């Protein structure tokens, strides 16, 4: 859910994980059980930017590994580690160079999973700073493109 609020001065963002998948009615375009609800509210004039951020998160939630990490996350750092891992593995096509008439065939062979960090590493309870993790980039957290705010709460 994305929107803009006239009196809001900063962006408000939340990702809610439901214990069980639920049909959420008119909010969703499809009648499938939903386990995650994402909301992003921003000040007036931020709607297009916020829609792009929500589109990015929905793309990540389609990925099986990221979805599992998000479902098992216990705290914010678990989600950030999942985002980092997704960004390291994703292939992005620049929109100006993509011809919709050309279909990109999937690879003949799935890339080797040997070099990827195990899900256990991504899901472990963090006792050390993220920059010590094997999959973490050295970018300071306040400079990252994606910022998820708020604590993980069990419902």
UniProtKB/TrEMBL annotation:
GO terms for molecular function: monoatomic anion transmembrane transporter activity; sodium:bicarbonate symporter activity; solute:inorganic anion antiporter activity. GO terms for cellular component: plasma membrane. GO terms for biological process: regulation of intracellular pH. InterPro entries: Band3_cytoplasmic_dom, HCO3_transpt_euk, Na/HCO3_transpt, PTrfase/Anion_transptr. Residues 1-100 form the Band 3 cytoplasmic domain. Residues 132-155 are annotated as: Disordered. This is Band 3 cytoplasmic domain-containing protein. It comes from Biomphalaria glabrata. The lineage of its organism: Eukaryota, Metazoa, Spiralia, Lophotrochozoa, Mollusca. The gene is 106052315.
């Amino acid at each position: 859910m994305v929107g803009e609020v006239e009196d809001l001065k900063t962006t408000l963002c939340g990702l809610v994980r439901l214990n069980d998948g639920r049909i959420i009615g008119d909010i969703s375009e499809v009648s499938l059980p939903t386990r995650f609800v994402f909301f992003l509210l921003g000040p007036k004039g931020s709607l297009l930017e916020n829609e792009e951020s929500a589109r990015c998160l929905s793309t990540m939630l389609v990925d099986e590994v990221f979805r599992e990490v998000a479902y098992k996350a216990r705290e914010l750092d678990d989600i950030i580690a999942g985002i980092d891992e997704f960004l390291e593995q994703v292939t992005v096509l620049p929109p100006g160079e993509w011809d919709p008439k050309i279909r990109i065939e999937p690879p003949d062979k799935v890339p080797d999973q040997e070099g990827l960090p195990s899900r256990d590493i991504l899901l472990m309870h963090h006792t050390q700073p993220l920059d010590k993790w094997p999959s973490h980039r050295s970018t300071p957290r306040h400079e990252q493109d994606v910022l998820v705010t708020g604590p993980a709460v069990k419902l």
